[in-house]
Amino acid sequence: MSKNTKHTKEPRIQITKQTEVSWRKSLLVRAIAIVVALIICAFVIVLLTKYNPFEVYGAMFKGAFGTTRKVWNTFQKLAILLCISLAVTPAFKMKFWNIGAEGQTLVGGLAAAACMIYWGNTLPPYILFPLMAIFCIVAGMIWGIIPAVFKAIFNTNETLFTLMMNYVAMQIVSFCIVFWENPKDSNTVGVINRDTMGGWLPYLFEQKYLLNILIVALITIGMYIYLSYTKHGYEISVVGESENTARYIGINVKKVIIRTMAISGALCGIAGMLLVSGTDHTINTNTVSGMGFTAIMVSWLAKFNPIYMILTSFLIVFLEQGAGEIATTFQLNESVADILTGIILFFIIGCEFFIQYKVHIRAKNKEGIKA
Known about the structure:
14 helices
């Protein structure tokens, strides 16, 4: 080899995208990430609180499953979070960044509250509940269709549009609360039909939340079939991959955008009904309490797969319930519990890098040429 020949300088570390990753490998990577996160959290617990980490982890488990009431409460929160996550998934799979699930769920809950206030004590349940479902679905659909129409026709930024719609929904709820009850605090309202329970979703087998859970279970199965085995689900996938390709093969992209956001809004409306009529029996600006934004993380972590969303929703709810129990049991500032939750979520999100990409480290031979 000539002395003047220059070797091509290649990077010592190279990152390449993996084409296919088996579910076993992805599951193993996530399990390792959770174990490492728990180990680091143990060091943080000892450093900040001097408590036994195993006692703290036991309190987390107790917070989610310590009593029968806590178990039902955990699965209820899981169901609502899962429902909202399923709602945003079709839009995300289409690469329509719907950040407005919070507002869409809130207007659905507002529709449920209106039905409970005006018809809860006058209409029989077999008429009231279907009517309430229709109003909630329509309200959520309208809140989803508005940004979809502007995106389809005027190519507006859907992220900002849907985000701003959240604040509009909150102001409408604040106005309605003042209009209906005129409380001193415009952000709260009392329990609707406390004495008559008019418009409250019925108990199944003496369990308050069982109906909510069953409804969301059916929605999960339906969404999995819709996205995986229907023509509409195929069109959503194609539009998400490339709008130009979709147009080339004859898909009406504008129609798909509007239709998909109508479905997202409708599911958010159902979630709003389950929150107001089946859980809280009241409405306020914090009814959704950030689940519309948490649902984004749930959907993304599950790779837009409705079945995997059950697991990711459970993990988020478990951490939330456990964090609250830690703060109560050990008389700690809630920030400590939030730090532990943040560390675990950081590792879970970060491990996605090692699932999607592969790191190559090149070694040097004796002549200094990279192998």
